[in-house]
Amino acid sequence: MKKYLAEGLGTFVLTLMGCGAAVFAGIGLGTTGFGVTTLGVAFAFGLSVIAMAYTIGDISGCHINPAITFGVWASGRMKGKEAGGYMVAQVIGAIIASAVIYILVHTGNAAGEIAVFNDTTTTGANSYLPGNLVPAFIAEFVFTFIFVLVVLGSTDSKRGAGNFAGLAIGLTLVLVHIACIPITGTSVNPARSVGPAIFECIQGNCGPLSQLWLFIVAPMAGALLSAAVWKGLSEE
């Protein structure tokens, strides 16, 4: 149970900090933002992973991403039942984080200190432009493959990066976001996509929710390929 709680907490922090950066101070608000650009949002996600890796890494391994959990399971490092529990906890953590962002966006005092953000429906949800289905799928598949491959390699008991694994994983996520944000907003994490899509639909825009399947299927497929490739590379 401690592992599941840790995964829920870690995914909560990742979603709150990453999507929060995009919503309150980043690209989601255009001219009303506070100067946090694509690079800033990318670092918000990456730094969240680094922080959580050194906070809950010894408890659960700090997957905080169903794609990573799926890759770890596919590579034979954990049992299916435990992997399923991880994924459920991760999705719940992301939904709670998205609820917090939603509340912050839609509440404020008479002076409108927080209500200034009500001019946007952005929740940090992932989406792609009409006609860009194939590029979006390829991007999520390839970037998740790269990300999960780094996770599997850096956490390998024999060839891993040891205490520097969290740093390597977090910085890789920064790199992935820098490249992928213009295409899909960058998911490579189904849980991180589920929460914002739900609350985006509550706000009246159900487009991201209708596209959610891609941000589940593509990352999971990419993670599966990562597991196969890493098993091939790591075998004696």
At a glance:
This protein is 69% helix and 0% strand.
Characterization of the model:
This protein is mainly alpha-helical and 236 residues long. Helix content is 69%, strand content 0%. It has helices at residues 2-25, 38-60, 66-74, 80-105, 133-154, 165-184, 190-202, 207-210, 214-234. Helix 3 (66-74) packs antiparallel against helix 4 (80-105) and helix 5 (133-154) packs antiparallel against helix 6 (165-184). It is globular, with a radius of gyration of 17 Å. The model is unreliable at 28-33 and 109-121 (pLDDT under 50).
Q: Helices and strands in order, then pairings?
A:
Elements: H1 2-25, H2 38-60, H3 66-74, H4 80-105, H5 133-154, H6 165-184, H7 190-202, H8 207-210, H9 214-234
Helix pairs in contact: 1-2, 1-4, 1-7, 2-6, 3-4, 3-5, 3-9, 4-7, 5-6, 5-9
**Parts with pLDDT < 50 across at least 5 consecutive residues:** 28-33, 109-121
The radius of gyration computed from the alpha-carbon positions, rounded to a whole number of angstroms, is 17 Å
Helix and strand string, N-terminal first?
Answer: HHHHHHHHH
Q: How many helical elements?
A: 9
Care to count the β-strands?
0
Largest sheet features: none
Structural class: mainly alpha
Helix content: 55-70%
